């Protein structure tokens, strides 16, 4: 027992996923392991043996399939036994930008602009003794950019959701979570990058018969023609629940600011001019 305390069995990944390489290493500052004979066993079967075999590599199996690694260290008449059991699991992290505005018929995910509010949800797949751990029964440790303290108040039992605000200086924030069974016999780790998107405003023509022409954004120059034309400004990825919401607009024609009346601020009508007009 005293000798066993002098040897540590280190593992490269305490929370491995399924079918993931994992390595083990014996470390001791009191015993010369280079002159000892090590025999490694995986789930009861011999895998490696020899003098000075301090490291061993293998792979995990399917989710919930235990990986039991045992090593015996023989040095003279002394035999030391060290063992470790890993249960592979996985956890997915889904995130959304709360209130990130996109126009109707927008395809895809609303992306986050600067200082956008982000909500992340963990969905664990942890199986212990043939039984899947319920999402609400797991313990979650969240961290942001490798710092647990960022989410100290949002981590804990059953807390599979976290919310935060994107910073001003990092283009990408790394969200990570360790989900574990209540008895700590099974755990899984997951991480996901959240990349900040630059906000932009796109202009569309509002046709009197067909409505807003979302299938084609306007270029920098448009032919006004003899009839009036109506422009609609769409603020992509602004943190606003609607186009009007908390977004304010300033329109200029020929570098002159237009003081709007009772029109919707996101809509602007230009009278017919019979020539090309520039807008920005």
Structural class: mainly beta
- The total count of strands amounts to 24
Described by strand count, sense and barrel closure, the largest sheet is: 4 strands, antiparallel
User: Roughly what percent helix?
Assistant: under 10%
The secondary-structure element order is EEEEEEEEEEEEEEEEEEEEEEEE
Instruction: Determine the N-to-C terminus distance.
Output: 78 Å
Mean pLDDT: 88
Q: What is the count of DSSP helices, taking H or I runs of 4+ residues?
A: 0
Shape: rod-shaped
Question: Which spans of ≥5 residues are poorly predicted at pLDDT below 50?
Answer: none
Computed CA radius of gyration, to the nearest angstrom: 30 Å
Order of the strands making up the biggest sheet = 4-3-6-7
Beta-sheet strand percentage? over 45%
Could you outline the blueprint of secondary structure elements for this entry?
Layout: E1 8-11, E2 21-27, E3 37-42, E4 45-51, E5 55-59, E6 67-75, E7 78-86, E8 90-98, E9 117-125, E10 127-128, E11 131-132, E12 139-144, E13 156-157, E14 161-165, E15 172-180, E16 187-195, E17 200-207, E18 211-212, E19 221-223, E20 229-236, E21 251-253, E22 256-258, E23 267-270, E24 276-278
Antiparallel strand pairs: 1-2, 2-5, 3-4, 3-6, 6-7, 8-9, 9-14, 10-11, 12-13, 12-15, 15-16, 17-18, 17-20, 19-24, 20-23, 21-22
Walk me through the structure:
It is a single chain. With 280 residues, this protein is an all-beta fold. 0% of the residues lie in helices and 48% in strands. The protein has strands at residues 8-11, 21-27, 37-42, 45-51, 55-59, 67-75, 78-86, 90-98, 117-125, 127-128, 131-132, 139-144, 156-157, 161-165, 172-180, 187-195, 200-207, 211-212, 221-223, 229-236, 251-253, 256-258, 267-270, 276-278. It has a 4-stranded antiparallel beta sheet, with no helix packed on it. A 4-stranded antiparallel beta sheet has the order 13-12-15-16, with no helix packed on it. Strand 3 (37-42) and strand 4 form a beta hairpin. The protein is rod-shaped, with a radius of gyration of 30 Å. The chain starts with 7 loop residues before the first strand and ends with a strand.
């Amino acid at each position: 027992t005293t000798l066993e305390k002098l040897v540590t069995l280190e593992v490269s990944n305490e929370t491995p996923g399924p079918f993931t390489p994992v390595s083990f290493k014996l470390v001791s500052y009191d015993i010369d392991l280079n002159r000892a004979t090590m025999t490694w066993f995986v789930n009861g079967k011999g895998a490696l043996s020899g003098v000075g075999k301090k490291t061993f590599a293998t792979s995990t199996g399917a989710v919930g399939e235990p990986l039991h690694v045992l090593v015996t260290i023989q040095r003279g008449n002394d035999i030391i036994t060290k063992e470790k059991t890993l249960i592979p699991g996985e956890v997915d992290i889904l995130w959304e930008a709360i209130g990130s505005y996109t126009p109707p018929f927008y395809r895809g995910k609303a992306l986050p602009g600067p200082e956008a509010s982000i909500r992340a949800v963990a969905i664990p797949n942890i199986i212990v003794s043939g039984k899947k751990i319920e999402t609400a029964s797991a313990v979650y440790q969240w961290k942001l950019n490798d710092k647990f303290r960022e989410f100290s108040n949002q981590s804990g039992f059953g807390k599979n959701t976290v919310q935060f605000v994107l910073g001003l200086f990092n283009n990408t924030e790394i969200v990570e979570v360790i989900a574990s069974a209540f008895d700590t016999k099974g755990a899984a780790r997951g991480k996901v990058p959240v990349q900040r998107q630059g906000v932009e405003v796109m202009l569309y023509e509002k046709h009197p018969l067909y409505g807003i022409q979302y299938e084609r954004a306007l270029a920098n120059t448009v032919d006004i023609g003899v009839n009036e034309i109506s422009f609609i400004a769409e603020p992509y990825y602004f943190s606003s629940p609607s186009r009007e919401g908390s977004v304010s607009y300033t329109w200029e024609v020929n570098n002159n600011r237009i003081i709007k009346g009772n029109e919707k601020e996101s809509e602007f009508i230009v009278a017919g001019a019979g020539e090309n007009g520039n807008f920005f």
